[in-house]
Amino acid sequence: MKAELKWIDGVCFLGESGSGHAVVMDGAPEGGGRNLGPRPMELVLLGTAGCTSYDVVTILKKSRQDVRDCRVLIDADRADSDPKVFTRIHFHFIVTGRGVKPDAVSRAISLSAEKYCSASIMLGKTASITHDFEILESD
């Protein structure tokens, strides 16, 4: 996997993934930024949520669950001193579908957390990671 990062100005950077997608990262105004994009550590959380959600949706589809939507609300804490690593991350999955079984969702989340999601397993080296979920019935 390869990527490239280019400094734009101040604390603003343009990142380009190996697959050719770009994202602007910037800092808060009080930190010298202009708030033109997400902070790098916010992208770490979003990437991790994407990684685990990909697993969960894929596993649920393979178990023939009628999933229509999946959202994840993330709540995290970081250390007070440098390096300000994540110390706690909580993922709240909101799975919408028709007749989705709670056991299937629980199993999919567990498999992602323990076996498949490289990002959350890596972050689990410094952070306590927890998960919960709710299921919403779709029309």
From TrEMBL:
<dbReference type="InterPro" id="IPR015946">
    <property type="entry name" value="KH_dom-like_a/b"/>
</dbReference>
<protein>
    <submittedName>
        <fullName>Peroxiredoxin</fullName>
    </submittedName>
</protein>
<dbReference type="InterPro" id="IPR036102">
    <property type="entry name" value="OsmC/Ohrsf"/>
</dbReference>
<dbReference type="InterPro" id="IPR003718">
    <property type="entry name" value="OsmC/Ohr_fam"/>
</dbReference>
<dbReference type="Pfam" id="PF02566">
    <property type="entry name" value="OsmC"/>
</dbReference>
